[in-house]
Amino acid sequence: MANSKYEYVRLFEQPDNLLPETWIVVRIDGRGFHKLSDKYKFEKPNDRRALDLMNAAAVSVMKDLPDLIIAYGVSDEYSFVFHPNCQLFERRSAKLVTTIVSTFTASYVCQWPIFFPDKPLDLSSLPTFDGRAVQYPNAKILRDYMSWRQVDCHINNLYNTTFWSLVLKGGMSNVEAEKELQGTVSSDKNEILFSRFGINYNNEAEIYKKGSVVYRQYQLEDQFSATTASLTQAAESQPSGELSKTQQEKMRKLRRKAQVVVEHVDIIKDDFWQRRPWLLS
Ligand code: ATP
Ligand code: ATP
Ligand code: MG
Ligand code: MG
Ligand code: MG
Ligand code: MG
Question: Of 30, 82, 194, 256, which sees the most CB atoms within 10 A?
Answer without folding.
Answer: 82
